[in-house]
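Weekly structure sync - notes
Attendees: PM, LS, DV (DV joined late)
Agenda: review two folding runs queued last week.

Item 1: First target. Sequence and structure tokens pasted below for the record.
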Amino acid sequence: MNNLSLLILGLVLIYIPACLSKTPKCFSQLLKPSYPCCKGKRVFYTDKDGNWGIENGKWCGIDGGVVESCFSLTLGYPCCESCKVLYTDKDGKWGVENRQWCGIKDTCNKPIENEKPAQNTTDVSNIEFDFTFLKMENNKKNMLYSPLSIKYALKMLEEGASGNTYTEINKVIANLNLPKYSSIDKNLSFANGLHIRDIYYNGVVESYINTLKEKYEAEVVKDEFKNAQKVNKWIEDKTLGIIKDMIKDEVVQNPNLAMLIINALAIDMEWDFQFNFDKTYGETFYKDNGKEMTATMMFNKEVASPNVAYYQDDNITALTMNLKEYNGTQLEFMAIMPKENLSAYVENVSKEQISEIDKQLKLSSDEVYGVNVKIPKFKFSYDLELKQDLMNLGIKEAFDDKAANFSKMAKANDLYVSDALHKADIEFTEEGVKAAAVTVIIMMTKGGKLPKETYPVDIIINKPFMFVIRDKNTKDIWFTGTVYEPNSWENDKKEYTPSRGF
């Protein structure tokens, strides 16, 4: 064998193992950060990258598909499937798909017809943001949060951010136009607050405080933060007494705590058409795991009201019910019960689906014999894993005590977000709905088919369902969530005088 042959053989022996060692077994190894490949094939979540599983308490990739190369992978964002450019910055060209930013692929080197220069921000649909956390924490259990509260808290945080910290936040919330609400006696409460450690107050940029006061009507509170009593009392008052002891003493007693950015909201509203209390009874509810339970089921017979509407097809049953109007503000409740699997429905729920349901809704008053409505009572609270969810959405620098840039908030630019909390509580009864939510951003110093019309239509919510509570006119969503396990009749029946249902 001559020297040339030896050289070629040597190169092949070096090159082949190197290539093999770098060949990804699954798409998730190419992402930044990278994730291991699953040994099994059970799919827990699917996005544009591929199918995901969970093994050993960690996410892992399932399919063998490989993500096509693009600059955004190194920044923690997936590649776009299309080549449509919506925004360009120093990193490259961006698009928006499935409610998240994505990088334009390297192969998209042809000019795109009708491509327009992008503005500083791109408007991502509010309703797509509304369901983001429902998808991210789709764990087949009772869930509740307030998209509106989170939006307000993030917008107030964004007001103080600069540089890449601002860019990351803005890519998630874009240029959201937030509706304004005024508190209404004991029925509706809406408040923004900036609670600042008294000794840090002079370190806050004055224009930031003024912006929060003027744009968000935020209450600015000086607090020694000796304990959490003062801020917890503020939250309790602003949530109509529903949410208590939100913040622990050790949080405010941390000497590095500079301020708390808070949005709090709550409703205590009656139905426009109430349920009959004496008709509530224990009935079967079919749980997601195939088991049954006896739930506390509310019932109204032959309802014929413009305040109750419904839609049914082979895949879903939907029900909307108006809450009373208070000083010009009216909210409505919508339940959507898939015939098969709620978790799978939540994964794919979209603005278009909700809009299509809205178009198909039929008033119960349009039915000759009305509709029979059954729906279970429920009461629960939920703590969203907001910090991790926001980081997964791409807001990372804000939580980095070295890289965070809040120079529009702090004169010394010495702040970062140590945690983001969100708690929500709901009680759904014959009389109406009580619900509240609080978002707290903690700033630290760097340190079926319809029946025949001649019979009443049965609208029976007796399987896991999702719901939204929204403004009747603007459709802004105050609350959304899922109910996998409503109240137990065994626990509630002592409150009722039993009577027959239908």
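Item 2: Second target, run right after the first with the same settings.
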Amino acid sequence: MSCETTDIVDQALTQHGLSRRIAMTVHHFGLVSQIIRTSNLIAVVPSSALEHAVFAGEVAVSDPPGMFFPAPVVGLWHKRQDLDPGLTWLRGHVNRLVIEHAGERCAELERRYCPAHKRAG
């Protein structure tokens, strides 16, 4: 099945004179590791979306060509809750957990990047 779509990946590739042929799209990243493990397809997704499969040795990760800027992770709340002590604590706690987890996981993913990527870099 062929899909027509344009997103940040296509825009970045176009800036480098590149393009991609999309075989399929998915609505959530949970399906991606199974699809690429059982096919000859590749995917452009945040490496953290595949970390379980990477850590299990089921898939390899490499940077795509071009510059891709990660989508920001944001939290939203109504302004009347800015000063709520419980919610202030919760936002700070979640922020610390995300930062700690991201740092640890990114370091581990970097160690597990595919060998071809390491030679090319």
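Discussion on item 2: Confidence is low (pLDDT under 50) at residues 117-121.
Action: LS to circulate a short write-up before next sync.
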